Amino acid sequence: MAENASPEGEVPTPPERLHSDSSVSLTAGLENPSIIGERDSEYVLDHEGHHRYLRLGRALLYLKEPLHEPVQSEIEKLHKKLLEEIQEIQKKQKTKNGSNKEKKKILNDYLKSKCLNEKVDENNKIYITNVNIEKWESHPWETGKAFMPSGQMEKNSCPQDTDIMGILRLISSCKQFNAWMNPGADNMSGHTKIQEVLKVRNLVAHSNSLCCSEEEMKNGIEQIKILLEHMKQKFESFADEEDFSKDEKRIYQRAEEKMEGALCSIEKVMTDTDFDVMRELVVMDICKSRAYESSDETHRKKIAKVQLRYETRRIFIVLNDLYKNRSKDFKERLQNQDALQSFIIEAKPDDVQFLLAALEEKKMFQAENLDALLQVIEPLEKENDFRRIKRKMMEIKKSLERTSAIASATIYDVLILHCEADRNEAISFRQHKLDILKDLNPPAKTILYDEYVVSGTSHVSALDYVLDDCRLVFILCTQSLVQNNLSKFQAEIVKCNSLQKNEGPRVIPVYLMEEDFQCAPSWIRVMTPIHAWKEYAQTSLMNTLRNGRKKYLKSPP
Questions:
Q1: Beta strands in 388-503 (DSSP E)
Q2: Which end of the chain, C or N, has fewer beta carbons within 10 A?
Q3: CATH tag for 410-551 (out of 3.40.190.10, 3.30.9.10, 3.40.50.10140, 3.90.550.10)
Q4: Model-level pTM greater than 0.70?
Q5: Using CA atoms, how far apart are residues 430 and 446, in angstroms rounded to an integer?
Q6: What residue spans of 119-189 are helical by DSSP H?
Q7: Checking DSSP bridges between strand 506-511 and strand 412-416, what pairing results, if any?
Q8: Model confidence over 263-283: pLDDT tens digits?
Q9: How far apart are CA 40 and CA 302, in angstroms?
Protein backbone atom coordinates (compact mmCIF):
# COMPACT_ATOMS: atom_id res chain seq x y z
CA MET A 1 0.00 0.00 0.00
CA ALA A 2 1.23 3.51 -0.77
CA GLU A 3 2.65 5.34 2.21
CA ASN A 4 -0.07 7.96 2.26
CA ALA A 5 -3.01 5.79 1.26
CA SER A 6 -5.93 5.50 3.68
CA PRO A 7 -5.83 2.48 6.03
CA GLU A 8 -8.37 -0.19 5.27
CA GLY A 9 -11.81 0.74 6.51
CA GLU A 10 -10.93 4.38 7.15
CA VAL A 11 -12.96 6.98 5.30
CA PRO A 12 -10.59 9.08 3.15
CA THR A 13 -10.54 12.85 3.32
CA PRO A 14 -11.23 14.76 0.11
CA PRO A 15 -8.08 15.63 -1.85
CA GLU A 16 -6.75 19.19 -1.80
CA ARG A 17 -7.66 21.46 -4.68
CA LEU A 18 -5.21 21.11 -7.53
CA HIS A 19 -2.44 23.72 -7.40
CA SER A 20 -0.67 25.17 -10.40
CA ASP A 21 2.73 23.91 -9.28
CA SER A 22 1.55 20.35 -8.62
CA SER A 23 4.15 17.95 -9.96
CA VAL A 24 4.14 15.29 -7.29
CA SER A 25 1.88 12.28 -6.93
CA LEU A 26 -1.59 13.11 -5.69
CA THR A 27 -3.05 10.23 -3.72
CA ALA A 28 -6.33 9.52 -2.03
CA GLY A 29 -7.94 6.27 -0.91
CA LEU A 30 -11.19 4.82 -2.15
CA GLU A 31 -13.95 3.83 0.26
CA ASN A 32 -14.39 0.64 -1.74
CA PRO A 33 -11.78 -0.01 -4.45
CA SER A 34 -14.10 -2.35 -6.37
CA ILE A 35 -17.14 -0.07 -6.65
CA ILE A 36 -17.38 3.57 -7.71
CA GLY A 37 -19.85 5.31 -5.47
CA GLU A 38 -21.05 8.91 -5.51
CA ARG A 39 -18.31 10.09 -3.13
CA ASP A 40 -15.67 7.73 -4.54
CA SER A 41 -16.08 9.30 -7.99
CA GLU A 42 -14.76 12.56 -6.54
CA TYR A 43 -11.64 10.96 -5.06
CA VAL A 44 -10.76 8.41 -7.74
CA LEU A 45 -9.13 11.20 -9.77
CA ASP A 46 -6.24 11.42 -7.32
CA HIS A 47 -5.83 7.70 -6.67
CA GLU A 48 -2.44 6.23 -7.65
CA GLY A 49 -4.14 3.15 -9.07
CA HIS A 50 -6.24 5.37 -11.31
CA HIS A 51 -3.16 7.17 -12.64
CA ARG A 52 -1.73 3.77 -13.57
CA TYR A 53 -5.02 2.93 -15.27
CA LEU A 54 -4.74 6.13 -17.33
CA ARG A 55 -1.20 5.31 -18.40
CA LEU A 56 -2.31 1.87 -19.56
CA GLY A 57 -5.27 3.33 -21.45
CA ARG A 58 -3.03 5.87 -23.16
CA ALA A 59 -0.64 3.09 -24.26
CA LEU A 60 -3.54 1.19 -25.90
CA LEU A 61 -4.46 4.30 -27.86
CA TYR A 62 -0.85 4.66 -29.00
CA LEU A 63 -0.99 1.07 -30.30
CA LYS A 64 -4.26 1.57 -32.19
CA GLU A 65 -3.49 4.68 -34.25
CA PRO A 66 -0.58 3.29 -36.40
CA LEU A 67 -2.75 0.31 -37.45
CA HIS A 68 -5.50 2.40 -39.07
CA GLU A 69 -4.04 2.93 -42.54
CA PRO A 70 -2.52 -0.53 -43.21
CA VAL A 71 -5.65 -2.32 -41.91
CA GLN A 72 -7.85 -0.18 -44.16
CA SER A 73 -5.59 -0.98 -47.15
CA GLU A 74 -5.76 -4.75 -46.58
CA ILE A 75 -9.54 -4.71 -46.10
CA GLU A 76 -9.98 -2.79 -49.35
CA LYS A 77 -8.02 -5.54 -51.15
CA LEU A 78 -10.15 -8.26 -49.54
CA HIS A 79 -13.35 -6.40 -50.33
CA LYS A 80 -12.37 -6.02 -53.99
CA LYS A 81 -11.67 -9.75 -54.25
CA LEU A 82 -14.97 -10.76 -52.61
CA LEU A 83 -16.95 -8.26 -54.67
CA GLU A 84 -15.58 -9.66 -57.95
CA GLU A 85 -16.35 -13.25 -56.88
CA ILE A 86 -19.90 -12.43 -55.80
CA GLN A 87 -20.62 -10.42 -58.94
CA GLU A 88 -19.40 -13.36 -61.01
CA ILE A 89 -21.81 -15.68 -59.18
CA GLN A 90 -24.67 -13.23 -59.67
CA LYS A 91 -24.05 -13.16 -63.43
CA LYS A 92 -24.47 -16.93 -63.58
CA GLN A 93 -27.86 -16.81 -61.89
CA LYS A 94 -30.65 -17.92 -64.17
CA THR A 95 -32.95 -15.09 -63.14
CA LYS A 96 -32.34 -11.63 -61.76
CA ASN A 97 -35.98 -11.11 -60.87
CA GLY A 98 -37.19 -11.00 -57.30
CA SER A 99 -37.91 -8.54 -54.54
CA ASN A 100 -35.23 -6.43 -52.90
CA LYS A 101 -35.65 -8.46 -49.75
CA GLU A 102 -34.86 -11.68 -51.63
CA LYS A 103 -31.84 -10.12 -53.33
CA LYS A 104 -30.51 -8.93 -49.97
CA LYS A 105 -30.89 -12.42 -48.54
CA ILE A 106 -29.03 -13.96 -51.45
CA LEU A 107 -26.21 -11.42 -51.17
CA ASN A 108 -26.12 -11.95 -47.41
CA ASP A 109 -25.76 -15.69 -47.86
CA TYR A 110 -23.05 -15.32 -50.49
CA LEU A 111 -21.10 -12.89 -48.30
CA LYS A 112 -21.36 -15.10 -45.25
CA SER A 113 -20.10 -18.06 -47.25
CA LYS A 114 -17.14 -16.09 -48.61
CA CYS A 115 -16.23 -14.67 -45.20
CA LEU A 116 -16.33 -18.15 -43.66
CA ASN A 117 -13.71 -19.18 -46.20
CA GLU A 118 -11.54 -16.23 -45.14
CA LYS A 119 -11.46 -16.94 -41.41
CA VAL A 120 -8.22 -18.25 -39.94
CA ASP A 121 -9.59 -20.93 -37.65
CA GLU A 122 -12.76 -22.98 -37.27
CA ASN A 123 -13.25 -21.54 -33.80
CA ASN A 124 -13.31 -17.97 -35.14
CA LYS A 125 -16.85 -16.70 -35.45
CA ILE A 126 -18.23 -14.63 -38.31
CA TYR A 127 -20.85 -12.02 -37.38
CA ILE A 128 -22.54 -11.18 -40.65
CA THR A 129 -25.14 -9.21 -38.65
CA ASN A 130 -22.44 -6.56 -38.12
CA VAL A 131 -22.51 -5.85 -41.86
CA ASN A 132 -24.89 -3.37 -43.46
CA ILE A 133 -25.73 -5.26 -46.66
CA GLU A 134 -27.11 -2.15 -48.36
CA LYS A 135 -23.77 -0.38 -47.93
CA TRP A 136 -21.48 -3.36 -48.42
CA GLU A 137 -20.74 -3.01 -52.16
CA SER A 138 -19.57 0.61 -51.84
CA HIS A 139 -18.12 0.52 -48.30
CA PRO A 140 -15.16 -1.89 -47.93
CA TRP A 141 -15.04 -1.52 -44.15
CA GLU A 142 -18.34 -3.40 -43.87
CA THR A 143 -16.40 -6.53 -44.89
CA GLY A 144 -13.97 -6.10 -42.01
CA LYS A 145 -16.79 -5.76 -39.48
CA ALA A 146 -17.84 -9.36 -40.16
CA PHE A 147 -14.64 -10.57 -38.42
CA MET A 148 -15.12 -8.37 -35.34
CA PRO A 149 -17.07 -9.17 -32.16
CA SER A 150 -20.85 -8.82 -32.44
CA GLY A 151 -22.56 -5.52 -31.75
CA GLN A 152 -20.55 -3.27 -34.08
CA MET A 153 -22.64 -0.13 -34.50
CA GLU A 154 -23.71 1.59 -37.68
CA LYS A 155 -21.40 4.52 -36.94
CA ASN A 156 -18.41 2.16 -37.16
CA SER A 157 -17.50 3.06 -40.74
CA CYS A 158 -13.68 3.11 -40.67
CA PRO A 159 -10.71 2.00 -38.51
CA GLN A 160 -10.81 5.29 -36.58
CA ASP A 161 -14.35 4.47 -35.41
CA THR A 162 -13.44 0.93 -34.38
CA ASP A 163 -12.34 -0.04 -30.89
CA ILE A 164 -8.99 -1.74 -30.27
CA MET A 165 -10.79 -5.02 -29.63
CA GLY A 166 -12.44 -4.91 -33.08
CA ILE A 167 -9.20 -4.10 -34.92
CA LEU A 168 -7.15 -6.79 -33.16
CA ARG A 169 -9.89 -9.41 -33.64
CA LEU A 170 -10.04 -8.57 -37.33
CA ILE A 171 -6.26 -8.90 -37.74
CA SER A 172 -6.08 -12.22 -35.90
CA SER A 173 -9.23 -13.78 -37.41
CA CYS A 174 -8.93 -12.94 -41.10
CA LYS A 175 -6.61 -14.76 -43.54
CA GLN A 176 -5.91 -11.45 -45.30
CA PHE A 177 -3.57 -10.62 -42.40
CA ASN A 178 -1.76 -13.97 -42.20
CA ALA A 179 1.54 -12.41 -43.25
CA TRP A 180 1.27 -10.06 -40.28
CA MET A 181 0.88 -13.00 -37.89
CA ASN A 182 3.94 -15.03 -38.93
CA PRO A 183 6.39 -15.52 -36.05
CA GLY A 184 8.91 -12.74 -35.56
CA ALA A 185 12.54 -12.83 -34.40
CA ASP A 186 11.38 -14.12 -30.99
CA ASN A 187 9.59 -17.11 -32.66
CA MET A 188 6.27 -16.02 -31.15
CA SER A 189 3.32 -15.74 -33.50
CA GLY A 190 1.38 -12.53 -33.87
CA HIS A 191 -1.75 -14.37 -32.70
CA THR A 192 -0.18 -15.06 -29.29
CA LYS A 193 0.90 -11.44 -28.89
CA ILE A 194 -2.55 -10.14 -29.86
CA GLN A 195 -4.22 -12.42 -27.30
CA GLU A 196 -2.00 -10.96 -24.57
CA VAL A 197 -2.87 -7.39 -25.58
CA LEU A 198 -6.59 -8.25 -25.66
CA LYS A 199 -6.26 -9.31 -22.02
CA VAL A 200 -4.83 -5.86 -21.29
CA ARG A 201 -7.73 -4.22 -23.14
CA ASN A 202 -10.24 -6.23 -21.11
CA LEU A 203 -8.52 -5.19 -17.89
CA VAL A 204 -8.97 -1.53 -18.84
CA ALA A 205 -12.46 -1.87 -20.29
CA HIS A 206 -13.94 -3.85 -17.40
CA SER A 207 -12.25 -2.37 -14.34
CA ASN A 208 -15.05 -1.40 -11.96
CA SER A 209 -12.70 0.77 -9.91
CA LEU A 210 -10.99 2.38 -12.92
CA CYS A 211 -7.72 1.40 -11.22
CA CYS A 212 -4.96 -1.13 -11.71
CA SER A 213 -1.95 -2.33 -9.74
CA GLU A 214 1.68 -1.50 -10.47
CA GLU A 215 2.28 -5.08 -11.69
CA GLU A 216 -0.77 -5.01 -13.98
CA MET A 217 0.33 -1.71 -15.50
CA LYS A 218 3.92 -2.80 -16.13
CA ASN A 219 2.88 -6.15 -17.59
CA GLY A 220 0.25 -4.50 -19.79
CA ILE A 221 2.67 -1.87 -21.09
CA GLU A 222 5.22 -4.60 -21.85
CA GLN A 223 2.70 -6.67 -23.87
CA ILE A 224 1.69 -3.60 -25.88
CA LYS A 225 5.34 -2.81 -26.66
CA ILE A 226 5.98 -6.42 -27.74
CA LEU A 227 3.09 -6.27 -30.23
CA LEU A 228 4.22 -2.86 -31.49
CA GLU A 229 7.73 -4.18 -32.09
CA HIS A 230 6.32 -7.22 -33.90
CA MET A 231 4.18 -5.09 -36.23
CA LYS A 232 7.01 -2.63 -36.79
CA GLN A 233 9.32 -5.42 -37.96
CA LYS A 234 6.65 -6.83 -40.27
CA PHE A 235 5.86 -3.46 -41.83
CA GLU A 236 9.55 -2.78 -42.34
CA SER A 237 9.91 -6.04 -44.29
CA PHE A 238 6.73 -5.38 -46.35
CA ALA A 239 8.10 -1.99 -47.41
CA ASP A 240 11.03 -3.81 -49.11
CA GLU A 241 9.06 -6.61 -50.80
CA GLU A 242 8.58 -6.54 -54.55
CA ASP A 243 5.08 -8.07 -54.33
CA PHE A 244 3.65 -4.83 -53.01
CA SER A 245 2.84 -1.78 -55.12
CA LYS A 246 4.53 1.57 -54.53
CA ASP A 247 1.41 2.89 -52.81
CA GLU A 248 1.27 -0.12 -50.49
CA LYS A 249 4.96 0.23 -49.66
CA ARG A 250 4.44 3.87 -48.74
CA ILE A 251 1.54 2.89 -46.48
CA TYR A 252 3.73 0.39 -44.62
CA GLN A 253 6.60 2.88 -44.41
CA ARG A 254 4.32 5.46 -42.81
CA ALA A 255 2.91 2.86 -40.43
CA GLU A 256 6.43 1.78 -39.43
CA GLU A 257 7.33 5.39 -38.60
CA LYS A 258 4.15 5.77 -36.54
CA MET A 259 4.99 2.55 -34.68
CA GLU A 260 8.37 4.04 -33.75
CA GLY A 261 6.63 7.19 -32.56
CA ALA A 262 4.14 5.14 -30.55
CA LEU A 263 6.97 3.32 -28.75
CA CYS A 264 8.55 6.65 -27.81
CA SER A 265 5.18 7.99 -26.61
CA ILE A 266 4.67 4.94 -24.40
CA GLU A 267 8.08 5.50 -22.82
CA LYS A 268 7.12 9.12 -22.15
CA VAL A 269 3.73 8.30 -20.59
CA MET A 270 5.53 6.00 -18.15
CA THR A 271 7.82 8.80 -16.97
CA ASP A 272 5.26 11.63 -16.90
CA THR A 273 4.25 12.91 -13.47
CA ASP A 274 0.78 12.08 -12.20
CA PHE A 275 -0.19 15.71 -12.75
CA ASP A 276 0.91 15.50 -16.40
CA VAL A 277 -1.18 12.38 -16.87
CA MET A 278 -4.20 14.18 -15.44
CA ARG A 279 -3.55 17.19 -17.66
CA GLU A 280 -3.70 14.94 -20.75
CA LEU A 281 -7.36 14.32 -19.88
CA VAL A 282 -7.12 10.72 -20.95
CA VAL A 283 -10.61 10.09 -19.64
CA MET A 284 -12.05 12.03 -22.58
CA ASP A 285 -10.63 9.30 -24.79
CA ILE A 286 -11.61 6.51 -22.43
CA CYS A 287 -15.20 7.67 -22.14
CA LYS A 288 -15.76 8.62 -25.78
CA SER A 289 -13.50 6.29 -27.73
CA ARG A 290 -14.83 2.90 -28.77
CA ALA A 291 -11.44 1.54 -27.76
CA TYR A 292 -12.86 1.40 -24.23
CA GLU A 293 -16.55 0.86 -24.82
CA SER A 294 -17.62 -2.10 -22.75
CA SER A 295 -20.47 -4.43 -23.61
CA ASP A 296 -21.40 -4.18 -19.94
CA GLU A 297 -24.07 -1.46 -19.67
CA THR A 298 -23.53 -1.14 -15.92
CA HIS A 299 -19.84 -0.49 -16.44
CA ARG A 300 -20.56 2.20 -19.03
CA LYS A 301 -22.81 3.97 -16.52
CA LYS A 302 -20.04 3.88 -13.93
CA ILE A 303 -17.63 5.47 -16.38
CA ALA A 304 -20.22 8.13 -17.22
CA LYS A 305 -20.65 8.85 -13.50
CA VAL A 306 -16.96 9.56 -12.97
CA GLN A 307 -16.68 11.55 -16.20
CA LEU A 308 -18.44 14.54 -14.64
CA ARG A 309 -15.78 14.76 -11.98
CA TYR A 310 -13.15 14.72 -14.71
CA GLU A 311 -14.80 17.64 -16.45
CA THR A 312 -14.83 19.52 -13.15
CA ARG A 313 -11.15 18.77 -12.68
CA ARG A 314 -10.59 19.75 -16.30
CA ILE A 315 -11.73 23.27 -15.43
CA PHE A 316 -9.49 23.35 -12.36
CA ILE A 317 -6.54 22.35 -14.54
CA VAL A 318 -7.41 25.04 -17.08
CA LEU A 319 -7.69 27.69 -14.38
CA ASN A 320 -4.39 26.68 -12.85
CA ASP A 321 -2.69 26.64 -16.25
CA LEU A 322 -4.00 30.16 -16.82
CA TYR A 323 -2.59 31.19 -13.46
CA LYS A 324 0.79 29.74 -14.40
CA ASN A 325 0.88 30.94 -18.04
CA ARG A 326 -1.21 34.09 -18.15
CA SER A 327 -0.22 34.92 -21.71
CA LYS A 328 -2.03 31.89 -23.12
CA ASP A 329 -5.39 32.49 -24.70
CA PHE A 330 -8.30 31.22 -22.62
CA LYS A 331 -10.25 29.77 -25.54
CA GLU A 332 -7.18 27.91 -26.77
CA ARG A 333 -6.57 26.41 -23.33
CA LEU A 334 -10.20 25.52 -22.76
CA GLN A 335 -10.60 24.08 -26.29
CA ASN A 336 -14.16 23.02 -25.64
CA GLN A 337 -16.74 25.18 -23.88
CA ASP A 338 -18.99 22.11 -23.51
CA ALA A 339 -16.75 20.94 -20.68
CA LEU A 340 -17.24 24.21 -18.81
CA GLN A 341 -20.98 24.15 -19.54
CA SER A 342 -21.23 20.65 -18.07
CA PHE A 343 -19.20 21.71 -15.04
CA ILE A 344 -21.42 24.70 -14.32
CA ILE A 345 -24.69 22.79 -14.77
CA GLU A 346 -23.67 19.98 -12.41
CA ALA A 347 -21.38 21.96 -10.09
CA LYS A 348 -21.73 21.44 -6.37
CA PRO A 349 -21.70 24.40 -3.94
CA ASP A 350 -18.00 23.99 -3.11
CA ASP A 351 -17.17 23.89 -6.83
CA VAL A 352 -19.07 27.15 -7.38
CA GLN A 353 -17.21 28.72 -4.48
CA PHE A 354 -13.92 27.58 -5.97
CA LEU A 355 -14.78 29.14 -9.33
CA LEU A 356 -15.77 32.39 -7.63
CA ALA A 357 -12.50 32.44 -5.74
CA ALA A 358 -10.62 31.86 -8.99
CA LEU A 359 -12.46 34.71 -10.67
CA GLU A 360 -11.62 37.03 -7.81
CA GLU A 361 -7.95 36.45 -8.62
CA LYS A 362 -7.94 38.97 -11.45
CA LYS A 363 -4.48 37.97 -12.53
CA MET A 364 -5.94 34.75 -13.94
CA PHE A 365 -7.86 36.52 -16.68
CA GLN A 366 -7.66 39.33 -19.19
CA ALA A 367 -10.81 41.22 -20.15
CA GLU A 368 -11.26 39.40 -23.47
CA ASN A 369 -10.80 36.03 -21.75
CA LEU A 370 -13.93 36.52 -19.70
CA ASP A 371 -16.14 36.62 -22.80
CA ALA A 372 -15.87 32.85 -23.20
CA LEU A 373 -17.03 32.32 -19.62
CA LEU A 374 -19.83 34.86 -19.94
CA GLN A 375 -21.21 33.12 -23.04
CA VAL A 376 -21.41 29.84 -21.16
CA ILE A 377 -22.97 31.27 -18.02
CA GLU A 378 -25.51 33.49 -19.84
CA PRO A 379 -28.28 30.81 -20.10
CA LEU A 380 -27.88 29.92 -16.43
CA GLU A 381 -28.15 33.36 -14.83
CA LYS A 382 -31.58 32.59 -13.35
CA GLU A 383 -29.83 30.49 -10.70
CA ASN A 384 -28.67 32.54 -7.71
CA ASP A 385 -25.15 31.10 -7.60
CA PHE A 386 -24.61 31.75 -11.28
CA ARG A 387 -25.96 35.30 -11.03
CA ARG A 388 -23.27 35.92 -8.46
CA ILE A 389 -20.64 34.41 -10.76
CA LYS A 390 -21.75 36.59 -13.66
CA ARG A 391 -21.84 39.71 -11.48
CA LYS A 392 -18.33 38.98 -10.25
CA MET A 393 -17.07 38.43 -13.80
CA MET A 394 -18.62 41.70 -14.98
CA GLU A 395 -16.86 43.55 -12.17
CA ILE A 396 -13.54 42.00 -13.13
CA LYS A 397 -14.09 42.68 -16.81
CA LYS A 398 -14.93 46.32 -16.16
CA SER A 399 -11.76 46.79 -14.13
CA LEU A 400 -9.69 45.28 -16.94
CA GLU A 401 -11.30 47.01 -19.93
CA ARG A 402 -8.75 49.80 -20.00
CA THR A 403 -5.83 47.40 -20.02
CA SER A 404 -7.19 45.08 -22.72
CA ALA A 405 -6.35 47.76 -25.31
CA ILE A 406 -2.68 47.02 -24.71
CA ALA A 407 -2.99 43.56 -26.22
CA SER A 408 -5.14 44.70 -29.15
CA ALA A 409 -3.38 48.00 -29.95
CA THR A 410 -1.11 48.09 -32.99
CA ILE A 411 0.50 51.55 -33.25
CA TYR A 412 -1.22 53.42 -30.45
CA ASP A 413 0.34 55.79 -27.94
CA VAL A 414 0.55 54.58 -24.35
CA LEU A 415 0.85 56.59 -21.17
CA ILE A 416 1.92 54.52 -18.19
CA LEU A 417 0.98 55.80 -14.74
CA HIS A 418 2.87 53.77 -12.19
CA CYS A 419 0.70 54.35 -9.14
CA GLU A 420 -2.75 55.57 -8.09
CA ALA A 421 -1.31 58.80 -6.63
CA ASP A 422 0.31 59.67 -9.94
CA ARG A 423 -3.00 59.28 -11.75
CA ASN A 424 -4.72 61.69 -9.36
CA GLU A 425 -1.83 64.11 -9.62
CA ALA A 426 -1.95 64.05 -13.43
CA ILE A 427 -5.70 64.64 -13.48
CA SER A 428 -5.33 67.57 -11.08
CA PHE A 429 -2.38 69.02 -12.98
CA ARG A 430 -4.00 68.90 -16.41
CA GLN A 431 -6.84 71.14 -15.30
CA HIS A 432 -4.37 74.03 -15.02
CA LYS A 433 -1.52 73.42 -17.45
CA LEU A 434 -1.28 70.43 -19.78
CA ASP A 435 -4.07 68.09 -20.79
CA ILE A 436 -1.85 65.03 -21.13
CA LEU A 437 -4.64 62.49 -21.24
CA LYS A 438 -6.66 64.33 -23.86
CA ASP A 439 -3.78 64.95 -26.28
CA LEU A 440 -2.88 61.30 -26.68
CA ASN A 441 -4.21 59.22 -29.57
CA PRO A 442 -8.04 59.50 -29.29
CA PRO A 443 -8.90 55.94 -30.44
CA ALA A 444 -6.62 54.38 -27.86
CA LYS A 445 -6.92 57.22 -25.32
CA THR A 446 -4.73 56.29 -22.38
CA ILE A 447 -3.65 53.03 -20.85
CA LEU A 448 -3.72 53.65 -17.10
CA TYR A 449 -1.29 51.11 -15.82
CA ASP A 450 -0.89 50.60 -12.11
CA GLU A 451 -1.00 47.85 -9.51
CA TYR A 452 -4.59 48.76 -8.57
CA VAL A 453 -6.01 48.45 -12.06
CA VAL A 454 -4.20 45.29 -13.12
CA SER A 455 -3.18 43.05 -10.28
CA GLY A 456 -0.83 40.18 -10.93
CA THR A 457 1.38 41.89 -13.52
CA SER A 458 4.55 43.29 -12.02
CA HIS A 459 5.99 46.67 -12.91
CA VAL A 460 8.95 44.89 -14.44
CA SER A 461 6.80 43.24 -17.12
CA ALA A 462 4.60 46.25 -17.85
CA LEU A 463 6.39 47.22 -21.04
CA ASP A 464 6.38 43.67 -22.41
CA TYR A 465 2.89 44.27 -23.76
CA VAL A 466 3.76 47.42 -25.71
CA LEU A 467 7.30 46.91 -27.02
CA ASP A 468 6.10 45.59 -30.38
CA ASP A 469 2.61 47.08 -30.60
CA CYS A 470 2.96 50.78 -29.71
CA ARG A 471 4.87 53.62 -31.36
CA LEU A 472 5.20 55.99 -28.42
CA VAL A 473 5.43 54.96 -24.76
CA PHE A 474 5.11 57.80 -22.26
CA ILE A 475 6.08 57.17 -18.64
CA LEU A 476 4.76 59.69 -16.14
CA CYS A 477 7.55 60.52 -13.70
CA THR A 478 6.75 62.04 -10.31
CA GLN A 479 8.49 62.36 -6.97
CA SER A 480 6.94 59.06 -5.93
CA LEU A 481 8.82 57.31 -8.76
CA VAL A 482 11.36 55.54 -6.52
CA GLN A 483 8.98 54.45 -3.79
CA ASN A 484 6.61 52.99 -6.41
CA ASN A 485 9.36 50.78 -7.83
CA LEU A 486 9.55 52.40 -11.25
CA SER A 487 13.29 51.81 -10.93
CA LYS A 488 12.50 48.20 -11.80
CA PHE A 489 11.73 49.44 -15.30
CA GLN A 490 15.41 50.11 -15.90
CA ALA A 491 16.15 46.82 -17.66
CA GLU A 492 13.00 47.20 -19.74
CA ILE A 493 13.91 50.75 -20.75
CA VAL A 494 17.34 49.57 -21.90
CA LYS A 495 15.54 46.99 -24.00
CA CYS A 496 13.28 49.71 -25.40
CA ASN A 497 16.26 51.84 -26.37
CA SER A 498 17.83 48.98 -28.31
CA LEU A 499 14.53 48.30 -30.06
CA GLN A 500 14.11 51.97 -30.87
CA LYS A 501 17.18 51.80 -33.09
CA ASN A 502 15.44 49.03 -35.03
CA GLU A 503 12.19 50.90 -35.63
CA GLY A 504 10.85 49.96 -32.22
CA PRO A 505 8.77 52.21 -29.94
CA ARG A 506 10.15 55.45 -28.57
CA VAL A 507 10.11 55.80 -24.79
CA ILE A 508 9.54 59.32 -23.42
CA PRO A 509 9.53 60.40 -19.77
CA VAL A 510 6.94 63.06 -18.87
CA TYR A 511 7.73 65.27 -15.84
CA LEU A 512 4.88 67.27 -14.32
CA MET A 513 7.09 69.52 -12.18
CA GLU A 514 10.74 70.53 -12.04
CA GLU A 515 11.16 68.69 -8.73
CA ASP A 516 10.17 65.47 -10.47
CA PHE A 517 13.03 65.79 -12.91
CA GLN A 518 15.50 66.48 -10.13
CA CYS A 519 14.38 63.38 -8.22
CA ALA A 520 14.55 61.07 -11.24
CA PRO A 521 17.36 58.48 -11.36
CA SER A 522 20.18 58.98 -13.85
CA TRP A 523 19.13 56.13 -16.14
CA ILE A 524 15.86 57.87 -16.99
CA ARG A 525 17.16 61.45 -16.93
CA VAL A 526 19.40 60.72 -19.94
CA MET A 527 16.30 60.14 -22.09
CA THR A 528 14.76 63.06 -23.98
CA PRO A 529 11.76 64.09 -21.85
CA ILE A 530 8.74 66.35 -22.00
CA HIS A 531 8.75 68.95 -19.21
CA ALA A 532 5.08 69.61 -18.59
CA TRP A 533 5.72 72.72 -16.44
CA LYS A 534 7.42 74.60 -19.30
CA GLU A 535 5.52 76.90 -21.65
CA TYR A 536 6.40 74.96 -24.79
CA ALA A 537 5.29 71.64 -23.30
CA GLN A 538 2.06 71.52 -25.29
CA THR A 539 3.92 72.17 -28.57
CA SER A 540 6.62 69.64 -27.64
CA LEU A 541 4.06 66.93 -26.93
CA MET A 542 2.11 67.58 -30.14
CA ASN A 543 5.29 67.54 -32.25
CA THR A 544 6.35 64.29 -30.67
CA LEU A 545 2.97 62.73 -31.42
CA ARG A 546 2.87 64.09 -34.96
CA ASN A 547 6.38 62.86 -35.83
CA GLY A 548 5.71 59.48 -34.28
CA ARG A 549 2.51 59.06 -36.31
CA LYS A 550 4.16 60.08 -39.58
CA LYS A 551 6.66 57.31 -39.04
CA TYR A 552 3.86 54.74 -38.91
CA LEU A 553 1.62 56.28 -41.53
CA LYS A 554 1.58 53.04 -43.53
CA SER A 555 -0.16 51.30 -40.64
CA PRO A 556 -2.91 53.67 -39.43
CA PRO A 557 -4.67 52.76 -36.18
A1: 412-416, 470-477
A2: N
A3: 3.40.50.10140
A4: no
A5: 14
A6: 133-136, 141-145, 164-173, 178-181
A7: unpaired
A8: 888 888 887 766 566 555 444
A9: 11
